[in-house]
Amino acid sequence: MPVIDLHSHSRYSDGAVSIAELLYTYSKAGVEMMSLTDHDCILGLAEARTKAAKYNMIFVNGVEISTRDHDNLHFVGYNFDPENLALKKLLETNTQLRLERVKKTVKLLQEIKIQITEEEVLKITKGVSSRAHIADCLRRRHLGYMRSDIFKKYLGKGCPAYVPPMAVTVKEAIEAIKEAGGKCFIAHPGLVRDCWDFEKWVSWGLDGIEIYYPSHREAMREELLRIAKKYNLLVSGGSDFHGNIAGRVLVPGREVPQEVYDKLYSTFF
Fold it and tell me: Is the pLDDT of residue 246 over 90?
């Protein structure tokens, strides 16, 4: 089966690898079609496209947009115009809200006697700031081995330094992607089962579902495939690759049925 990966992150957001490292890793994994989908950031797209061409890999513009309803309720835009003003404005809004969340989180950490500053976090931020950068600062203090350890102890929901998501609405995210001429997919829907509202999302312009995802077991994939069929939605797959310090999947690429690959290719090209 074809191997695709329409969900990846670089150091421009919370990824642990450069664009060059990311594309090299993907080429070695045999990925045929890929997209860089940094969180609320499109700074790496031009470089990623150039590197993908070097490896004869099909590249699709991408971005993963956070929303305020849940830490993991994200929507991925593909094949959009990166110069579209409406999309750029929305990404700027989320970038500022991310920074505000970082500042609030740092303040909570300081209140529990962890010595950390905003400046320290921003110093290691290449594109958009995030809680992942805070986690990296805490890792350097040996407060956890992986980012996931830090989130479980300090930054996750119910932890002493948790700050609820600060971002645009789902409707705003979907409409901005569509305004830019892109296709909008819900990312890792299995992580936000309690938030599902496909009928409403479709009415706002949702185009597809990320179904072939590492944590989606067979039952979840089958349920999502039924939903995709019901609403005539596209199907995609991605690893959500971040690199080797994220506490996530370490191998990029997802096998998908040939008909899924063919439909995506014909939609994007």
Answer: no
